[in-house]
Design goal:
Length: 292
């Protein structure tokens, strides 16, 4: 099983499972589950018995990225590895030192490494808190390749790790971004439009209060549930469209956001609140009467 040709039946099985007609009618979550099942679970038996050649691992990774790209997901942009011992992170093929895999930024160097699937642990030398490279080139870098090596070495000098624990994936929300920041502060204009739509004064929103349905608005018990449904609709749509921005690079402007919130909140409330008589025109023009 050391030759790539011996792995051809395995690769063909992956392709058959992923190209199954039934897979194309699954939901987004269903397709994502299928991809992970095929590309993570199926090879478990073979990998437990045989060591796959780098070319086979590369083909499997390409298959994963193609299928994820078809779903509009670019995990190399959305996720980054946090390095512990470096054992489970691929030096060239995973995003860990910068926001993209090193094989894309340093393509000439990547072609000189005889082990393209090598780990961070194998390529990183640590002396105290200082990191440097442990190389095994097929030939010495020169010219533009040498310039790439110098740039890579500068990046490694600024890199630090505690050299303990397992590596783990981290969602690249941003260094200081939290869920509360993503939902409230980043979408401040959307919330302003929602409050203006209801004719209410804007209040400072708190994440726990929003999800628990607590509100400072004086209203009836039924009105409080209506406003809670509106807040939850905002939270849901803001988070959903933020994921679209991260994974699909799509935009969501405040006027469109308000329109979606109005439609979705009306659908949820009119279907679930059986004691409330609500019509679309009143919901658009005077929603405040439903919460007071």
């Amino acid at each position: 099983m050391t030759k790539s040709v011996n792995w051809k039946p395995v690769l063909e099985k992956f392709e058959k499972r992923l190209s199954d007609l039934k897979a194309r009618v699954l939901s987004f979550g269903g397709q994502l589950t299928l991809i992970n099942s095929v590309l993570n679970s199926l090879p478990l038996y073979f990998f437990s018995l045989f060591r796959a050649p780098p070319s086979v691992l590369h083909k499997l990774e390409c298959a994963r990225r193609i299928e994820l790209d078809n779903l509009g997901i670019n995990f190399t942009k959305a996720f980054k590895k946090e390095i512990g011992n470096g054992k489970d992170t691929r030096f060239w093929l995973d995003s860990w030192l910068i926001d993209t895999p090193l094989c894309e930024r340093f393509s000439r160097l990547f072609r000189l490494d005889p082990v393209p699937n090598t780990s961070v642990q194998d390529r990183l030398m640590r002396s105290g808190e200082i990191c440097s490279g442990s190389w095994n080139w097929v030939r010495e870098p020169r010219g533009r390749t040498d310039a790439e090596l110098n740039e890579l070495m500068r990046l490694l000098q600024d890199f630090s790790t505690n050299n303990s624990g397992d590596d783990r994936w981290r969602w690249s929300l941003g260094a200081n971004e939290t869920v509360a920041h993503a939902i409230f502060q980043c979408q401040n204009e959307v919330w302003n439009r929602v409050y203006d739509w209801f004719g209410l004064s804007r209040v400072t929103l708190n994440l726990s209060n929003a999800f628990l349905g607590r509100t400072s608005i004086q209203s009836t018990e039924e009105g409080a549930r209506v406003w809670q449904a509106v807040e939850w609709t905002c939270d849901y749509l803001i988070w959903k469209n933020r994921n679209k921005k991260v994974f699909k690079n799509s935009s969501w402007n405040p006027p469109v956001a308000l329109n979606e919130i109005q439609i979705k909140s009306f659908e949820w409330i009119s279907k679930r609140c059986k004691t409330l008589e609500i019509d679309w025109h009143s919901w658009l023009t005077n929603p405040k009467k439903f919460i007071m």
